[in-house]
Amino acid sequence: MRGKRVLITGGAGFVGCNAARYFGTRNWRVTVLDDLSRDGTEQNLHWLRDGTSFDFERVDIRERAAVERVFSERRYDAVIHLAAQVAVTTSVTDPRTDFMINALGTFNLLDAVRRHRPEAVFIFASTNKVYGKIEGARYQLSGSRYAYADRPYGIGEEQALDFLSPYGCSKGAADQYTLDFARIYGIPATAFRQSCIYGTRQFGIEDQGWVAWFTIASRLGRPITIFGDGKQVRDVLFVDDLVRAYEAAIVAPDKIAGQAFNIGGGPGQLLSLIDLVDILEKRLGRKIPLRFDDWRPGDQRVYISDIRKLERVLGWKPEVSVADGVAQLDEWVQRNEAAFATPAAAQKPAVKVASAEPALPAA
Ligand SMILES: NC(=O)c1ccc[n+]([C@@H]2O[C@H](COP(=O)([O-])OP(=O)(O)OC[C@H]3O[C@@H](n4cnc5c(N)ncnc54)[C@H](O)[C@@H]3O)[C@@H](O)[C@H]2O)c1
Question: 361 alpha carbon to ligand 1 midpoint, in Å?
Answer without folding.
Answer: 14
